[in-house]
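Thread: quick sanity check before group meeting

JM: Hey all, I'm pulling together slides for Thursday and realized we never actually wrote out the predicted structure for the chain we discussed last week. Dropping the sequence here so it's in one place. If anyone has concerns about the input, flag it before I start.
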Amino acid sequence: MKNLSIALFSFLFLAITVLYIFHFTGKKKEAVREPVRTPVEVSSQGIAFVDIDSVIMNFDMFFDRRDELMEKQRKAEAELTSKGTRYERDARDFQEKVTKGLVTRATAAEMEQGLLQQQQDLITLRDELQTNLMEEEQVMNRQIIDYITTYLEQNRSEFNFQYVLGRSFGGVVLYGDEGLDITKRVSDAINSKYRSEKSKK
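JM (edit): ok, ran it. Output follows.
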């Protein structure tokens, strides 16, 4: 019985050794070759894409709207600074009068209440201005995307695609063949249209 298990063990060991040798010394597989890329015929696919970030950053409308937004931001900051300076001046005046005993306690309490209200108004104004500017920026971005989308829809015959995808960093379109990229065509076209509209105003 003991001889049988030694023989069986020897046979299994030999079989594993043979399999090991065959596995690692057998024919090597050919290296996997990358497929050769052939240019894609855009018109035959019915699909194209634009790099949205690139289109926006090359669009005159974006810079015009951004300048308008920055001007509004400058005015908002100037208004806030002016009111903040007035508040600081009134607070110093209050402190000086109280320290020198130039006002009664009742008047001091009234002045302090006025300062607290002024401070609250400043905080409210700051929050309103921030909210308004953020909303205007969102509206600006939506207007720009709408302009691009509307242009593509109105000029379907020129581009002749069933779908035009928008690629952007972190978006759902991760890759697109260069033959399907119509970013420059779209950028040139919308800028031309926008400049023409702007010159008529």
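AS: nice. The longest helix spans residues 105-154. Confidence is low (pLDDT under 50) at residues 1-5, 7-13, 27-43.
JM: adding both to the slides.
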